[in-house]
Fold this protein.
Amino acid sequence: MLESLASSMKQYFSIVSSASLKYLALAFLTYYVSVVIYGIRWKLVLNGIGRDAPLKELVKAILASIFMNNVTPLSRSGGELLRMAWVSKRAHIPVGVSAVSIVYERTLETIPVFALFLVGMSYFSSGEPLPLVLLGIAGIALIWIKWDSFVRLSLRLFRTQVTREEMEKITSLRKMHNLNMIAILLSSSIWLLDVTRLKLITMAFGLNLPWSLIAVISIANLLFGLIAFTPGGIGIIEGGLIGTLTYFGIPMAIALSVTLLERFVSYVASSLVGLAVLLTSGGVEIWKALKSQ
């Protein structure tokens, strides 16, 4: 048994070590281009509220938040709080205002991925997906229709006071059609880059999977991330991605290698970069101040 395990590990290591460095470098590039686009989208939403923050600080906040998301249970349980505290400290934006901006950009983000979610549900749901679909639509519609009430509730929860002018700008966000369209396009480009990253990683192992199949696998990966309750989705995302790849006929050894490389880019390396930003940009003090509140 030990000999079989050692042989399998040797095989996996041989496959991983044979991965093309060119495609791996491009996969890293697509990941961090996505982070910059996240920052641009957040900046546009803040500008719509009448607030401004340097793009550099927003990108730093996002990178540091990725690390916090990867080490705290449940998706975004610590990262989003750190983002709010970061812009509050660095750009003097009230926590409640930054919270609303993050909720709003996340709400817009659901629009371009909603059709993709339906596709994923049709592939991977053993039950009837319609109730979940209707529940998702109802939740988004409720936030959109009752946006004013939602804003006031958010500000009350974060004990933040805003001026009348700021309140008017926050509640008028949904009427800014140009901003919303640009934010949706940016969100769509982020998802396309995620698909491209997975395509590049499979190409690093000599696979030439159709883009349609890569898209479905990426959707499944997104769904596993949404249901994950462990820090950074450890265990759940890896198992789900390996299972999905083998379901579509990818040999186990290659499926494991693709998963390890993808998670190295999206989890291990991103955590190290986020930790470096946290340690060198005053993020530790911001996090301690947040925990003390």
